[in-house]
Amino acid sequence: MKRLSVLFILVACAFAQKPDKPLKNGLYAIFNTELGKFTAQLYEKDTPNSVITFVELAQGTLASRDPKTNAMVKRPLYDNTTFYRILPGQAIQGGSPNGTPAYDCGFTIKDEILPGLMFSQSGKLAVANSGSPDTGGCQFFITTGPVASWNNKYAIFGQVVEGLDVIAKIDKVPVHGDQPVNPVKLISVTIQRVGPEPVVKKPKK
Questions:
Q1: 3-state SS of 65-124?
Q2: How far is 91 from 190, CA to CA, in rounded Å?
Q3: Contact 131, 183 (CB under 8 A)
Q4: Which pTM was predicted?
Q5: 42-83 pLDDT per residue, tens
Q6: pLDDT (tens digit, 9 = 90+) per residue, 134-185?
Q7: Which of 1, 29, 78, 158 makes an SS bond possible with 125, Cβ 3.0 to 4.6 Å?
Q8: What are the C-alpha distances in Å from 193 to residues 30, 151, 171, 179, 183?
């Protein structure tokens, strides 16, 4: 009987402690939220400008507009912000220090929209914009389901590879319209590289 009990405990532990699969070589963003962590692989080869903008804003090496003073400052933009907008079953949106879509980060970037990158599943990380081309900057959203109507309208620059359950939790918080009653806090975004940096091909002379 004791042997059976020990065997049961070992089997239960094996199921309870499933480790995440090792991350493939690449560049990743780790989102630490009050509901848990999730990790997105960044498409640095496909959408380099979108990725470098996001990375530098996360690390505080690219200046953005202070929502209180309007001065351009260098500091980690995404720390202690919120997912201030939720479209249940579609997306969660963040990247605004004052928690509104009207926040102006002080610059815009050109869209990097590729035909092969589609909103076909949960976990697509994309640049939010005003609805017009080339109006994105610092705000981003992550899909919580497939949204085909957004294809070719927003630049997808990453895919969540760990923690889709955390995104699902955020997607399910109570909302009034598209505003969460109690917005989920994004504590920090950490950038991590796995493996060597990609080789950049020199242009032919």
A1: ECCCCCCEECCCCCCCEEECEEECCCEEEECCCCCCCCCCCCCCECCCCCCCCCCCCCCE
A2: 21
A3: no
A4: 0.87
A5: 999 999 999 999 999 999 999 999 999 999 999 999 999 999
A6: 999 999 999 999 999 999 999 999 999 999 999 999 999 999 999 999 999 9
A7: 158
A8: 11, 28, 28, 34, 29
